[in-house]
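Researcher: Structure prediction, please.
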Amino acid sequence: MIDISLPIIGKAIVIREMRDEDIELLYDLETDNEVKRYVGGGTLSRPRQDWIERMRQLRVTHDALLPLIVTCIRRFEIQVIIAKQYWGKRLGKEAVELLMGVAFNNLNALSVVSVVHPENNPSLKLYQPP
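Model: Predicted structure follows.
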């Protein structure tokens, strides 16, 4: 059984369930070359409306499968992508701390990983011990 009560409220961020309007914002992040510079897969080339509709369909599947996946594997990957206007505000650090807390305290994670490009110094700092 997954025990996560949303929203999870930090000092500067809130982790909540995805909403339809978030999907359009995700498209903007996924097509921004600077934001995606260090993220595998490059930027999207798919037409906006096609991608948004596909993500809405996947969201329903994801919401249905997540409890099954969490119960079976208990290994998690954290990926934090931040829009440019929020860079340098330490939001990534807070997001990682909140997500790690949820993974280990609520989901009984066995392990949590994050794959970070070796030249992405701001992201590398997120995962280094204090």
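Model: The first helix runs from residue 20 to 30.
Researcher: Thanks, that helps.
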